[in-house]
Model the fold of this input.
Amino acid sequence: MAERMHRCDVAIVGAGPAGLSAARAAASHGARVLVVDPQAAPGGQVWRQDVRHGAPGPARALRAQLARAGVGLLLQSEVVGHSGSRLFLRSGHEAASIDYGTLVLATGARELLLPFPGWTLPGVTGAGGAQALAKQGWPLRDKRVVVAGSGPLLLAAAATLRRHGARVVGIHEQASRQAVAGFAAGLWRWPGKLLQAARLRAALWDVPYRTGSHVLRALGGHALRAVELSLEGRVVTVDCDHLACGFGLVPNIELAHMLGCALQADGAHAHVRVDQWQCTSVPNVFAAGEACGIGGVDCALVEGEIAGHAATGHGNAAGRLQARRRRARGFAARLRRHFALDPALHALAGPDTIVCRCEDVPMSALAAYAPGREARLMTRCGMGPCQGRICGSALAELGGVARSGFRPPIFPVPLEVLAGFGDAHPAGQSQEL
Amino acid sequence: MGAVTGIVHLRVDGRQVAVVAGSSVAAAIAHAGATARESVTGQRRTALCGMGVCFECRATVDGRAQQRTCLLPVAEGMEVRTRG
Done:
């Protein structure tokens, strides 16, 4: 089976706000644009299609504009490798390739999920994970849900869960009361965000919001039954059917790394390094949004727009956007400071707690080995299909050692698809990060 | 196909389920009261990240193994297997 070949001026990986915004800007200069995304509908995570409530207004408007501009969408498609300026993809169940002139990486972020006893029980998901599943039609009516972890995403997730009929019994934010109050006090500088926060609080007025509180254990035999939490120095047990627990976001940088783009450490995690035109260290490769550091939807929109202009040689059109970009990044920096993770969270996993969920590697198995390659070779930690996206990021957070050693294909790909790539094998780097 | 508008029928481990059109297969598995996969040491697992990253929601769909069911919309008459 030969690959299905596509050709375009600007290829954009990721159909979230950054990718769609980049597509609009690039198409406005007459470029042939192709956007690739693994989901069945565009929107990314924050604009995800909801089976009951549709897509948010701004997402619908942008999609309509892109359709009119003739922007191509390649959905249910995932980039797995590259060779020169050709991307290799799994597209549905088939092999595909894209030859591009310039490339915009709008690969977004995933949730930071930290191991704690019981986190592998069915009924425990990420916080953003629970929100995504709710929008996919996950049954939540009358389910008792505890929301825990860190960041404003907890409120957004709780509101979505409630909208789908869940009984949210509590929101447990690990940041201290002072940190959260300090964050809220500075929100007047971003009126849009203040309004959004006020709306969320109003929608959740009767749900207890606890600060300085974090999960200790998930309890249950074959499925979740209750969760044990630390609350103001006490240990409390709350009965529930679902625990939605996430500790913030981490940039998806695997594709940028494969392409050789320079990365920048940001605490325990890395993001793509870009200049003010969103250009990476690799010529003709741009990046925008969460991949360049967690910044939220406003950052994604403005950086996508800059990237779309710059990727079509119209960087001058992006000059007026720089102030908006700085402002959005300023909000992100504030968010990160106020919701910094409590080091107590690093000690949640016990010796028997599974760290690598793909290969069922417990914490105790890792103790004898140096983090990274040695631990991987000896225990298979990070060698499963998620390729360390979950455990690697968790261990980076716990140990302060950046995840390393990922290599193409950057997602598992069926042999029949791999065979479809023909003579031009996906190339890439295999050096340690 | 005899489907009520907006409702899709599929089978999860032989059990018939009806879900809203546009739902993911992962959601349909949950509606069937099932979990998605068995881990390498025999634990039952189900969707964790909801966005195609963690691979915990893998199941066999229409004979294709190892499908991330959170990325896959339901289709009328689909056959989903979570065991064996």
The radius of gyration of chain A is 21 Å. Confidence is low (pLDDT under 50) at residues 428-433 of chain A.
